[in-house]
Amino acid sequence: MMANLQQAPFDEMLIREYLLDNPDFFNRYPELLVAMRIPHAERGAVSLVERRQELLRQRVSQLEEEITSLMNIATHNERIFKFNTELSFKMLASQDLGELRLVLSEGLKTEFGFSHVRLITVHDIDSELANIWRHRVHSGYYFGRLTQSESKRLFGSEVGSVALTKLSDENGQVIFAIASKDPTHFHPDMDSLLFSQLRRLLDHMLPQL
């Protein structure tokens, strides 16, 4: 019978569940912590205690990296918030459309290094712009790259990547367009919070200018 027991395979999941349900198991049998050896890629074999310490160090290191990443994101978001607040007040103080365009363009170019910032009115007689209006911003936003022809029509030259949105119908067919020299700066998966906030402010202001 002992031979049969020795040959019978252990159910690893049962052992795992038992140890999870009895976290004090090794407190009752501390000699096992030292006696058990675990294969290690660099050190051959280590005790269970050593392996646990190594895993804890790795987890601490991982948590430190995650905290650093979260702090960097928080710092970036705080910078964006402060910039957006300051830019919004400057835009609200604009006396006419020309000043508004200048404040918007200089603010975004200075803060983010964008190559172009434009408010473009689309006329149906302009087939190129009309196509961009219908096909690029039909869903409200477009982030990514343009064809060479589209880039030149919107910005007068080739650009890397763009962020496009159309303003509300109260303003007619107007495209708010930003371009970057970096082909990867604007992409479909990016966050649109800052862009959408600026669009809402423009929707509010343009009818009054």
Automatic annotation (TrEMBL):
Pfam families: DUF484 (PF04340). It comes from the Bacteria. Residues 46-73 form a coiled coil. The keyword Coiled coil applies. Keywords: Coiled coil. This is DUF484 family protein. It comes from Shewanella polaris.
